[in-house]
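Design job #97: recover the sequence.
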């Protein structure tokens, strides 16, 4: 499947991102831990993910993940509507991230990204 992107995104709390940077890895949210893998979204899936799971939340981070750095821990699996979503079976090493931006999601699900510092 060579048509899959090599970048995906993770939305997480600012506190979780600070902890991940300190530890050098992100082990996942409560939902990720319950499901047994870390949920990511490709760029074209991001707005729907934000609206469905993060509406009305602030103090979030949008983390860009280099999927080529994840090796066999990355598996694309069907999810919403049968679309393939990237899932990480194991921790997300912060060394596999390309950057992060502050994020808020309005009550109606619109994403508001902060300017990069």
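Job complete. Output follows.
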């Amino acid at each position: 499947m060579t048509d899959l992107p090599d970048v995906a995104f993770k939305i997480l709390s600012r506190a979780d991102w600070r902890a991940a940077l300190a530890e050098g890895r992100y082990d996942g949210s409560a939902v990720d831990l319950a499901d047994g893998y870390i949920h990511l979204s490709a760029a074209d899936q991001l707005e729907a993910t934000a609206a469905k799971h993060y509406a009305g939340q602030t103090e979030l981070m949008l983390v860009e993940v280099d999927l080529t750095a994840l090796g066999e821990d990355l598996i694309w699996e069907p999810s919403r509507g049968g679309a393939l979503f990237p899932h990480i079976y194991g921790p997300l090493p912060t060394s596999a991230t390309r950057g992060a931006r502050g994020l808020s999601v309005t009550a109606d699900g619109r994403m508001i990204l902060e300017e990069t510092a």
